[in-house]
Amino acid sequence: MSFKSDIEIAREANKKPIMEIGDKLGIPSEHLLPYGHDKAKVSQDFINSLAGRPDGKLILVTAINPTPAGEGKTTTTVGLGDGLNRIGKKAVICIREASLGPNFGMKGGAAGGGYAQVVPMEEMNLHFTGDFHAITSAHNLLSAMIDNHIYWGNSLEIDERRVVWRRVMDMNDRALRDIVTSLGGVANGFPRQTGFDITVASEVMAILCLSKNLEDLQKRLGDIVVAYTRDRRPIYCRDVKADGAMTVLLKDAMQPNLVQTLENNPAFVHGGPFANIAHGCNSVIATTTALKLGDYVVTEAGFGADLGAEKFFDIKCRKAGLKPAAAVIVATVRAMKMNGGVAKADLGAENVEAVQKGCPNLGRHIANVKSFGVPVVVAVNHFHSDTDAEIAAVQAYVAEQGAEAIVCKHWAHGSAGIEDLAHKVVQMAESGSANFAPIYPDEMSLFQKIETVAKRIYHADEVIADKSIRQQLKAWEDAGYGHFPVCMAKTQYSFSTDPNLRGAPTGHSVPVREVRLSAGAGFIVVICGEIMTMPGLPKTPAAETIRIAESGFVEGLF
Q1: Do the beta carbons of residue 206 and residue 278 sit within 8 Å?
Q2: Where are the beta strands (DSSP E) in 22-98?
Q3: What is the DSSP string of 77-107?
Q4: Beta bridge partners of 402
Q5: Helices 131-151 and 203-210, interaxial angle, to 10°?
Q6: Omega before 120 within 30 of 0, i.e. cis
Q7: Which of 140, 218, 362, 461 is at 20 to 30 A from 375, Cα to Cα?
Q8: Which pairing describes strands 234-236 and 547-548: parallel, antiparallel, or unpaired?
Q9: What does the DSSP 8-state code read for residue 17?
Q10: Residue 66: enclosing H or E segment and its boundaries?
Q11: Which residues contact 321 (CB under 8 A, 6 or more apart)?
Q12: Domain 10-129+253-431 has CATH 3.40.309.10
């Protein structure tokens, strides 16, 4: 069986001018700032004018733990948005922008797939509207101003050994994880150890994605703790007077990007914090704007529900006052088989027993999402190799968990293949059965918050943390940061911190290696196991096969 590739389908798209897409949402053309003919930013003035409007219903799309078999979370998010529009609902899609690092590494595109895609696909997966470059520049401007302040006399008495602000770039480059700067003598400053993270792990990214407007953005940037003095007094971004210039660099990046699906439905693509090392959701400003413009907003959270959904509920919804009406958990028969012990090469053969054996991973995600008080449906993203018996096994298992599994064929058929899920989502959302609440209160201690996530979401027996880490958490509580939520940084491939432990493991421990204060974003990053905040490229990176073909088109990205 031969299928068109995602990029072939995207190039055949019958795109409409972006002004027409804005018109669908009632956005006047003067409030759309075009980037070419098929993408535009929405002005802050227009967003401000929406304040008095009621909100639509928010639908979260999340997933099981990712496997090499692929799950299709973004594809399902786009498909469901198209499906809701198909059945007569005014629906808007909200997804994240793609990071260059994984695109040139191993991930490929991040705009959906098949006949459930957002376009223009190539631009979205490359430089798009330059938002990530602006975030990188703003972050590194602060880095430069810290070192410059120290060089010119250090009136703030920053302890060079306690500068906690690292640099970033939007590329996977393991050589930069741990470096020494300012070598070469007096003219170059004071040598010190530091390193680079990937841009999507930057606190500036998190701040942009959680800010309500430019004023809120500048305040949050000013709140960033960049260093400490010898007597452990914090030094803030505003102390080195970088917050104003950083806000100027981020002025345009703060405005949401409007694009369209293959079926010419509106989609906001804005922001992109990683879910395994950051909070994994698109921007608050895009989501809240979409809620004012549509009856339904379909958004996603990165990786599996143990990371993306937990952070969406405990960080984004808590901070933005959002109340999701329903959640969709994406699963595939192929992934169930992989969780059941089948090798990737053997996934084409029917194996009902392996499907049943792998289903507990899905079952735990269902129970976890339900524990937030949000009604759940499972979307079985259909592959042509799935058999009726395998699909029936997933549906029977999900029914035992008190939920429904609906087969979705949006990849092959677009909105026509996902109508059943769209109707089910509307039924759940309209029932008013959602009783959303985060799983821990603000006033709980930071270490207890870490334990709550580890035990209730990961089903771990214990959290292991050195005395120094516990003391650091206590010091932040004493400094007034105890009400912050925790942002867990761990592998996306398992409920545990061991990426090879598939299924629904129990009896494991969660080792905390490091904790970082994100005072501007308003959370504590908890780095668990071997997770890296600067990924490396694989042995054969995707970049090796990406090129411009004779036709002038990009080749090898998808």
Answers
A1: yes
A2: 32-34, 40-42, 57-63, 91-95
A3: HHHHHHHHHHTT--EEEEEPPPPHHHHHHT-
A4: none
A5: 130
A6: yes
A7: 461
A8: unpaired
A9: P
A10: none
A11: none
A12: no
Q: For the beta carbon of residue 25, count every other beta carbon within 10 angstroms.
A: 18
- Give the C-alpha separation, 264 to 357, whole Å: 40
- Say which CATH architecture domain 131-250 belongs to: 2-Layer Sandwich (3.30)
> Which is nearest to 338 in space by CA: 500, 505, 497?
500
**3-class DSSP state of 238:** helix
pTM exceeds cut of 0.90: yes
Residue 40 and residue 257 in contact, taking contact as beta carbons nearer than 8 Å? yes
Q: What residues pair up with 311 in beta bridges, in sequence order?
A: none
Q: How is residue 25 written in tokens?
A: 């949402």
Residue located via tokens 């594809």 = 75
Residue given tokens 């959302």 in the structure block = 429
- Whether residue 1 is predicted with pLDDT greater than 50 in this model: the reply is no
The C-alpha atoms of residue 304 and residue 280 are separated, in whole angstroms, by: 10
Residue with tokens 């989609």: 267
At 228 the three-state DSSP class reads: strand
Q: Taking CA 101 as the corner, what is the angle to CA 236 and CA 160, rounded to the nearest 5 degrees?
A: 30
Strands 486-489 and 523-528: parallel
Write the pLDDT tens digit of every residue in 178-200. 999 999 999 999 999 999 999 99
Three-state secondary structure along 386-453? CCHHHHHHHHHHHHHCCCCEEEECHHHHHHHHCHHHHHHHHHHHHHCCCCCCCCCCCCCCHHHHHHHH
Contact 287, 212 (CB under 8 A): no
Q: Quick one: CA torsion of 463, 282, 199, 445, rounded to 10 degrees?
A: -30
pLDDT tens string 289-339: 999 999 999 999 989 999 999 999 999 999 999 999 999 999 999 999 999
CATH superfamily of 446-528: Formyltetrahydrofolate synthetase, domain 3 (3.10.410.10)
- Burial call 377-408: b when 16+ CB within 10 Å, e when fewer: bbbbbbbeebeeebbebbbebbeebebebbbb
Q: Which residues are catalytic, by number?
A: 73, 75, 96, 107, 275, 303, 383, 411
502, 338 in Cβ contact below 8 A? yes
Give the residue extent of every domain in the chain: 10-129+253-431, 131-250, 446-528
Tokens of 22: 């804005």
| Spatial distance between the Cα atoms of 523 and 488, rounded to a whole number of angstroms | 10
